[in-house]
C-alpha cells in the first residue's frame, strides 16, 4: 500500500496546528522488591513446608513462562528453577502463552528469548511445543487440554503476573487461572476458552482452571504483582488448593497498584510505542481507555488516539492498532500479519487488528487526530503524550493543561511548554 508524504492527505493536514507541550512527572505509591532481593524472597517463599515438601528428588517439574513483559521475569524464573534443582528435581520451562508467538513452537521460543529467557540464562531446558494433551473434563463436560510436556511432568509450577485484564472483568483476570486455562492450553486450549465470546471469559476461566487443578499435576503457583512503575512489588506462593480463594484478593491488590493518567481525560492521546510486552493489545486499555470489547472499562477518556511505532520485542505483532484512530507508515510497515492474526482468530476479537488511518509521519498522525476531533476548542486542544502504557511516570501534556496543574497534587511540571520537534520527514526527534 502506497502511503506518500506530500499527497492529498498531507495537504489537508499541513496547516493543522499542534500546540506546545510540556513535561510532567506523575507521582504514585512505590512499594518495591529490588531485583537483587528476588532470589532470596523466592527461596524463602518456596521453602515453606507446604511447597518444599511437594518437590522430590528426580521429579520432572514444568515451570511456566508467559509472553508478557513481566518485570524481572528472568530473575524470578531462574530462582524457581534453582529451588527445584536444590531439591534434586529436574526442572524445565514451558512457554505458556496460548497462541502468541504466531502459534508456533519456534515463535514462542523467540518470544521467550526476547525477554532473556533461554536455556543458558536459566540453567535448564526449555520444551516448546504446540502439542496438547487432554487431561479430563470440566464441570460442564467439556474436554480440557494443556501443554503435552507439562501434562506429562511429575509436577507443574505456575509462574505468572496478576493484573487487570484488557478486555473483560471477573473474579479472575490475568493471573493464575488464565495462565493455566489459556497459557498452558496453547492455541487449542486458548481458543476453547474464548469460543463463547469475551463476555463469558470471566466465567470460563475458573471452570477450566479448576479442572486443570483437579486433573493436571499442578503443585502450586508463584505469582507476582507489579507497582505503578512496572516494578515487582510482591511475590507470593499459592498452593493448588488455595488458588480459587486467594487469586481474587491478589487481583484487587493488583488493581490498587495500577498507575493511571492523572488528568483523566483528553482530546487526543499520543502513544509513542506499542508492543506485546506492554499489553496483549499493544497498549494497556486500563491506562489508555482503548478497549477492544464492551466488557471492560476504565482508563483515560479520549476522543482520538495516535499510535506511532511498534517495538522490536513484538516481532511484528501489532495487535492493538485497531484501537487507534491513526498510525504511522513506520508502524504499518513493521506489521507481520502471520504473527498478529492468530491472536485474533484464537480470541475471536477482531477489532484489535483492524487497520486504522495510516499516514506518512508522526506529525501527520497527530494532526489527523486533532483535525477530526469534534465539539472541542481547537485553540485549547488537550493532548496527552505517553512513551507507552507501562511507563507513564514522565509524560507530556499540551499547554491547555498548564494552568490546571495546580489542581493535581500528584503532577509536577518538569519543563515549560515548547513546540514538538520533528525532523524533515515529519517524525519526532
List keywords for this structure.
single chain, 429 residues, alpha/beta, Rossmann fold, 2 domains, eight-stranded mixed sheet, 30% helix, globular
Helix share, percent: 25-40%
Low-confidence stretches: none
CATH class bucket of the largest domain: Alpha Beta
CATH topology of the largest domain: Rossmann fold
Strand content: 15-25%
Structural class: alpha/beta
Query: Taking strands numbered 1, 2, ... along the chain, how are they ordered across the largest sheet?
Result: 14-13-12-11-15-16-1-17
Tell me about this structure.
There is one protein chain. With 429 residues, the protein is of the alpha/beta class. The chain has two domains: 176 residues, no CATH class; 222 residues, 3-Layer(aba) Sandwich (Rossmann fold), CATH 3.40.50.11440. Helix content is 30%, strand content 20%. Helix 2 crosses helix 4 and helix 8 crosses helix 10. The longest helix is centred in the middle third of the chain and has 15 residues. The relative contact order is 0.16. The model has no long low-confidence stretch (mean pLDDT 94).
Amino acid at each position: 500500500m502506497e502511503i506518500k508524504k506530500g499527497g492529498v492527505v498531507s495537504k489537508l493536514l499541513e496547516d493543522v496546528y499542534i500546540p506546545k507541550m510540556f513535561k510532567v512527572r506523575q507521582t504514585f505509591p512505590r512499594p518495591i522488591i529490588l531485583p537483587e532481593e528476588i532470589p532470596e524472597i523466592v527461596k524463602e517463599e518456596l521453602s515453606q513446608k507446604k511447597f518444599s515438601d511437594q518437590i522430590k528428588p528426580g521429579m520432572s517439574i514444568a515451570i511456566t513462562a508467559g509472553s508478557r513483559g513481566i518485570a524481572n521475569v528472568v530473575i524470578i524464573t531462574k530462582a524457581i528453577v534453582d529451588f527445584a534443582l536444590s531439591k534434586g528435581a529436574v526442572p524445565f520451562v514451558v512457554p505458556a502463552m496460548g497462541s502468541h508467538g504466531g502459534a508456533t513452537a519456534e515463535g514462542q521460543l523467540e518470544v521467550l528469548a526476547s525477554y532473556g529467557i533461554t536455556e543458558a540464562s536459566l540453567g535448564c531446558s526449555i520444551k516448546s511445543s504446540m502439542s496438547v494433551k487432554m487431561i479430563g473434563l470440566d464441570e460442564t463436560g467439556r474436554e480440557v487440554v494443556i501443554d503435552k510436556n507439562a501434562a506429562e511432568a511429575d509436577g507443574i509450577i505456575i509462574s505468572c503476573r496478576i493484573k487487570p485484564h484488557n478486555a473483560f472483568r471477573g473474579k479472575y483476570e490475568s493471573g493464575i487461572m488464565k495462565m493455566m486455562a489459556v497459557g498452558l492450553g496453547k492455541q487449542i486450549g486458548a481458543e476453547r476458552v474464548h469460543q463463547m465470546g469475551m463476555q463469558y471469559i470471566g466465567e470460563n476461566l475458573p471452570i477450566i482452571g479448576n479442572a486443570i487443578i483437579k486433573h493436571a499435576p499442578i503443585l502450586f503457583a508463584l505469582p507476582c504483582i507489579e507497582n505503578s512503575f512496572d516494578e515487582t512489588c510482591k511475590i507470593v506462593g499459592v498452593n493448588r488448593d488455595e488458588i480459587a480463594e486467594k487469586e481474587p484478593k491478589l487481583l484487587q491488590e493488583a488493581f490498587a497498584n495500577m498507575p493511571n493518567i492523572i488528568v483523566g481525560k483528553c482530546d487526543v492521546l499520543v502513544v509513542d510505542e506499542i508492543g506485546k510486552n506492554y499489553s496483549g493489545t499493544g497498549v494497556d486499555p486500563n491506562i489508555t481507555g482503548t478497549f477492544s470489547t464492551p466488557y471492560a472499562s476504565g482508563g483515560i477518556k479520549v476522543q482520538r488516539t495516535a499510535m506511532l511505532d511498534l517495538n522490536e520485542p513484538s516481532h511484528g505483532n501489532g495487535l492493538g492498532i485497531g484501537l487507534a484512530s491513526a498510525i504511522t507508515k513506520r508502524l504499518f510497515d513493521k506489521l507481520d500479519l502471520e504473527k498478529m492474526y492468530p491472536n485474533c482468530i484464537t480470541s475471536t476479537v477482531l477489532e484489535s487488528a483492524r487497520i486504522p488511518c495510516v499516514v506518512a509521519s508522526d506529525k501527520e498522525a497527530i494532526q489527523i487526530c486533532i483535525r477530526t476531533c469534534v465539539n472541542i476548542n481547537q485553540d485549547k486542544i488537550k493532548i496527552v503524550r505517553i512513551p507507552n502504557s507501562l511507563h507513564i511516570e514522565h509524560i507530556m501534556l499540551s499547554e491547555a493543561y498548564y494552568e490546571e496543574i495546580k489542581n493535581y497534587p500528584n503532577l509536577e511540571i518538569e519543563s515549560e511548554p515548547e513546540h514538538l520537534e520533528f525532523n524533515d520527514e515529519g517524525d519526532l526527534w
